[in-house]
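User: Hey, my collaborator sent me this sequence without any context and asked if I could get a structure. I don't really work with proteins. Can you help?
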Amino acid sequence: MEQKQREVDEKKWVYDSSVDHKGRLPLRASTGVWKASLFIIVYLIAAQLYQKWEVVIVMKMTKLVTNLAIEFSERLSYFGIATSLILYLSKVMHEDLKSAAKSVNYWSGVTTMMPLLGGFLADAYLGRFSTVLISSIVYLLGLILLTMSRVVPSLRPCGPGACLEPRKVHEVVFFLAIYLISIGTGGHKPALESLGADQFDDDHSEERKKKMSYFNWWNFGLCSGLLLGVTMIVYVQDHVSWGAADIILCVVMAITIVVFCVGRPFYRYRKPMGSPLTPLLQVLVAAIAKRKLPYPSNPSQLYEVPAAEKTLDRLLCHTDKLKFLDRAAIIEDNEDSVEKQRSSWRLATVTNVEEMKLILNMIPIWLGCLPFGICVAQASTFFIKQGATMNRKIDSDFLIPAASIFSLAALGMIASVTIYEKILVPVLRRATGTERGIKILQRIGIGMVFSMLAMIVAALVEKKRLGFVEKNPKTGSMSMSVFWLAPQFVIIGVGDGFSLVGLQEYFYDQVPDSMRSLGIAFYLSVIGAANFLSSLMITVVDNITEKYGKSWFGKDLNTSRLDKFYWLLAIMNMLNLWVYVILARRYSYKNVQRRAAVAVADCSKEDGVTLISMA
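Assistant: No problem. I've predicted the 3D structure and written it out in structure-token form, which is a compact way to encode the shape of the chain:
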């Protein structure tokens, strides 16, 4: 009878430690899932006009609108800026190819590393909703300042007449504006995506399956905003003015912040519980302090939260890897009570120990994804610059903006995510008998193969382009259609649909539950660190090739050898793929205890789920 009553309650209420906007237990029917996530994804798309917006058309439930709305806005803005940045730096700021590429990589690197700080603040102190709201306002301030740098006469790059270099005041205001946008992205990006994923209850079988689709549709929305960012916004930049485009981005961002706030009653919230790093440090301190103690013969003798003290938080099962950390959970035979041992950092629970193991196990995977991130960095720098040197005319009247060719990558990603979600996942679920179809790391590995192929195709196309330049230096590659770049953009977009989506899901799912925003930040830090490494590679390769002959990076593309650089990246990724496969095969997924009252598929070999009795 008690069991039946619990099942009825779980159908009505959400027992996953989340609360509603008034701090009460959330009602399942009126909060969370798609009805809340759509608001977040729409916001993502607008910032992506900066990236994408068609998710809104696909998701029909109103609550999903707010999450999607704010993400749409952010991605709309981000890609509207990012894809044109290298062109602005070279045409308006008069930077050479190497300097412009490195400036873009530095900005992209900072933008994707800042979420580490934003994610920590969201998880520990501010909460995800507050972090998104505050950082969105900072983002909007950056956009307003960027608009002023292009509209206010005294802040414009040049006055009337010829201009060989921009005004210093414009440089200061311009870079201050784009780095304010970086700070805004640092808070909103990790908190927003994790807030959207929080709308699904992991212990509810129906909502858990929807959550597996969430990251696919999130990225579908992201790419929709990207499409608008690299087509409509870039077109306005090229054919109207940079200032007009910035005004559009400001208006869209302001509107979607309002939409995001409208969805407040529908969200499920997780209360910040203090620094998530403290329990991890406690494990290290306790394990080192008890390093000489004998290991217990039975893991059940290790300390875990007593049944009477169990909260709604999920517990993790013990694993045999990194066993030296298990000593942190050994109860010492002395006069001190368990409570005193815990307060003095001499005792940690099995769950805390396993959370520390999760973080340590993720480090090799994070490192193994960096070469893939370096390949992704080329799409928004050298790929765009290649397009600017080629024939972009469709007819005698219409000229495709160079940055708009990036839309092909977005189309490739939309296609791969849609096919994966609607065709591959159902087929793989039937074939493997698991909820996910294939493991997360397998999905990431498939994307790495596509990124390697994209570098090979890019090298062959660039070699052909240089052949045109050699035959006719005057017209150069203008006799070669920009659509020769289509294959490399589409292939890298398809790869992103596997790897980038997989990385988001992996880092959100595999981190401790108290670090979900930081988990998204870890994913973004892969791309950020890869951007810094890409800049470093350009510098190192430039110095080495110049020392032993002619540099691969000249003043412009026609005097450079990007084809050789692409071959270097392809070889590097091929070697890295072998290492990644070994790491993925040895990886142990999070082993979560779930209530037996909830119907859970037997996916212990894939997701590490263990059923426990709540009696």
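In plain terms: Residues 374 and 537 are 9 Å apart (CA to CA). You can pass these tokens on to your collaborator as they are.
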